[in-house]
Structure formats: C-alpha cells, structure tokens
Amino acid sequence: MTKSKMNNLLNIFKTLSDKNRLRILMILYEKELCVCEIQEIIQVTISTVSKHLSILKSAGFIEERKEGKWVYYHIAKNFTNTPLREILFILPSWLKGEAEIEKDIEKVKNIKEVITCSTK
Amino acid sequence: MTKSKMNNLLNIFKTLSDKNRLRILMILYEKELCVCEIQEIIQVTISTVSKHLSILKSAGFIEERKEGKWVYYHIAKNFTNTPLREILFILPSWLKGEAEIEKDIEKVKNIKEVITCSTK
DNA sequence: ACTTAATTTCGTTATTGAACGAAATGACAA
DNA sequence: TTGTCATTTCGTTCAATAACGAAATTAAGT
Fold it and tell me: Are B75 and B22 in contact (CB under 8 A)?
C-alpha cells in the first residue's frame, strides 16, 4: 500500500522539524559515520541518536551499512521520491555558515580514522 | 535580534508539518481568500483556521490584507529568506495531483465572487 | 559457550502542538 | 451607541514526540 503524496510530504517535513536530526544530516553530508561517532558529536544519549537515525532512515534521508559490530549511516543515494531528492540536494545551502553546524563539521574532521568509540 | 538560520529553518519545517496548513497554502496558491472562505473549505472551526493562518503568517508563507470586516490572506510576495522563497516556489509541484488537494481547489473555484460567509 | 562492545527496543516523563468552544476585539451599519 | 458579523485570543483537553536509562539484541573475539 503506497502512501499518498500528502502523507509522504508531511513525513518529510516532520522528520526535518528537529534540530538534532538536521545536525545529524549535516554531518553525514561530510562523511559516513557510525552511531557512536554521531553520538560523540551531537551529545545526546546513544538511544536518542539511534531513534533519530531510525526516523531519518524510514523517511528515506539516510541509508545504513553494517560492518562488523558497527552500523554506518550515510546520506541516501537511492531516492524514493521527488521531494526527498530535491530537499537532500538543497538542504546544505540552507544551513551553510550556521555556527552550530560548522562546529559539528569541525568535530567530524577531527574524528580518528580507526573507530574507537569506547576508548574515546 | 535576528533568528539563526537553524531556528528559521526549523520554524519553516514545523509550519509545513501540518496537513491543514498545507491544504491552506495550496488553496491560497489558487486565489486570495478570507478566513471564513478558508473555513468553508478546510472544515475546522474558525478559531482553528485563524490559528493556522497566524502560524503561516509568522513563518512568512502568507501575508494579509484587511478590507472592511474581512481579512484576506495570500501567498507571500515579499520573502524574508531563501529557504522560504525556494519552498514556496516548489511546493505546488510536490502536491500536484493529490486527491484531497484537488478537491479543495475545486471548492475554491465554486466560491461566489461576493463574500457571503454568514449566509452560506 | 562466554565476554565485551555497539546498537536497538522498551517504558516512562516532560514538552509541544492541534483542536474546540467561549470570551474578547475590531469594523462597519443603523 | 448599539447591534451584528468577522476574526482573534484564551483556557482546556487530548495526542504526538523528544529525551532518558534500563533491558534486550546483535556481532565479534577469546
């Protein structure tokens, strides 16, 4: 059963109506990251990060890739619909220069190559 | 005190996260309408319509024009920021063909030229 | 199998937001 | 100024959602 355009669009807007989800999207534009790395940057509990990721994923914004113990998330490459594709394309331009986002991106760059979530 | 890009964008997405507000926007693309005409179409109480309109207005999506006893609302012509302008431009294409929206638009076309809110 | 680490799920709490009806406000006409 | 109609504001109720910690799940490595 296919969702209506209306419900799909509402789901997209609701997904984007949370600051931490926008922050997560913006850091994923920079680099594919695992849950614990995202938690390092966003600074909420791991369960909250996981919940945000599941919301972003079910709306089609991000995709996951499992590798060993880790689950990596990246911006979606396969788009399920037009609004999603167009928003993913334009979103970074809307938040460019925002101080909080720039800080997060800076943190992404300082994340070590080898994952060391528990031995941070 | 200027709002941050982040808060502005969040406000835009929150404003668009409600079905009745999307319906109101879509009928206003068709034609400038007063509060009671919008109520006729959307079918919620007048106070609820008024609340939605104030939210749409404060986010910059619509503007008002007072004429006698009536307050007419139309899609904004003066944009306060980039995301707003771009979304207002593209939104109709995202909801084109949606059954519920088409029905609302049909109702707009059948609204009489002379306003007769109380003598409907 | 057993332990450890990463992630998800569950149950709870606190906040936000949509809807309603009633009361208040604003504008015009008699 | 009084009455009427359009709209907004206020107070309340109910549903949705973000956050947390604890428990459950999943995947290696020993």
Answer: no
Q: Is residue A86 part of a domain?
A: yes
Interval B64-99: pLDDT, tens: 999 999 999 999 998 889 999 999 999 999 999 999
Q: Residue B26 corresponds to which tokens in the numbers above?
A: 């879509």
| Residue B33 DSSP SS3 | strand
Residues of A in contact with B95 (CB under 8 A): 5-6, 9
Residue B98 lies in a domain: yes
Q: Is the CB of B69 under 7 A from strand C?
A: yes
Chain B residues whose beta carbon lies within 8 Å of the beta carbon of residue A5: 94-95, 97-98
Write phi, then psi, for A74 (nearest 5 degrees): -145, 160
Residues A24-43: tens digit of each pLDDT: 999 999 999 999 999 999 99
Give domain status of residue B71, yes or no.
yes
Q: What is the CATH number of the domain that holds A96?
A: 1.10.10.10
